[in-house]
Design goal:
Length: 99
């Protein structure tokens, strides 16, 4: 996770839902038109040590979207700190969203 804690062993399995952690803020990294693209990018984030990344499916204007998100975070400040770290990994277009 971005908070610097070691990831539990269960985090190695692919997840399509947000982790059970508590918090009201998430970072949306990108949105994709296919689940495969979103899951592939999530796997790359996991390899980079971002173990709290997940894909969330949404229907926008009648079209399916797959949102790549990181979190949740307990505060906007925690989300901003994670956003700064993600920028160092090349993810510059993310934004913070309240859940």
């Amino acid at each position: 996770m971005l908070e610097g804690r070691a990831a539990p062993a269960a985090a190695a399995t692919p997840a399509a839902k947000p982790p059970a952690a508590k918090g009201n803020f998430v970072l949306q990294i990108a949105a994709y038109t296919t689940s495969e693209d979103a899951q592939s990018r999530r796997a790359k984030l996991h390899q980079a040590g971002v173990t709290n990344a997940f894909v969330e499916q949404a229907s926008i204007g009648g079209k399916q979207q797959y949102r790549l998100r990181v979190g949740p975070f307990p505060s906007r400040e925690a989300a901003q700190a994670a956003q700064a770290r993600l920028r160092t990994l090349g993810y510059d277009n993310g934004f913070i969203a309240a859940q």
